[in-house]
Design brief:
This protein is mostly helical. It has helices at about 1-5, 15-40, 45-80, 85-105, 115-135.
Length: about 140
């Protein structure tokens, strides 16, 4: 859809960022949703499985926090009309919430680890949905 909707030439920096955010969130949610199926069938105890799953999610969400918000801030500086402050704050809050939920899973801070993990996956999907809508409908030609 992006290739068909795109005029000639390459992608500009805001479009590249949006595509990265979309790929980060959607592929991350997909792979993080598959990991428990591989981990929980292993020979180790359930608590170890939760720590492993939480570790993978924590690393992934930490990487997103390190790379996406600073890039969004730079793009907001260059293209404030394409990156309104409210959107940047919502997306950053989404990243932080996902990271905090990953820490809950990693360290077992709640007896509801499965719910925290599922909620983190849902937040990744929300992030991806926002990026998808922005890729399709908020372009500068």
């Amino acid at each position: 859809m992006i290739a068909l909707a795109r005029s000639s030439g390459g992608f500009n920096p805001p479009e590249r960022f949006r595509l990265r955010a979309l790929i980060y969130a959607s592929f991350g949610a997909m792979f993080l949703a598959i990991i428990p199926f591989a981990v929980f069938g292993g020979p180790w105890p359930e608590s170890t499985s939760w720590r492993l799953v939480g570790f993978v999610m924590t690393v992934y969400t930490a990487a997103g926090l390190l790379f996406l918000p600073p890039a969004a801030y730079r793009l907001r500086h260059d293209h404030p009309e394409l990156f309104p402050l409210s959107l940047v704050v919502v997306q950053f809050g989404n990243h932080v919430s996902t990271f905090l939920l990953a820490l809950v899973v990693l360290f077992g801070l709640s007896e509801y680890r499965a719910s925290a993990y599922t909620m983190a996956l849902i937040l990744l999907l929300v992030h991806g949905a926002i990026a998808f809508v922005r890729v399709l409908f908020h372009r500068r030609d």
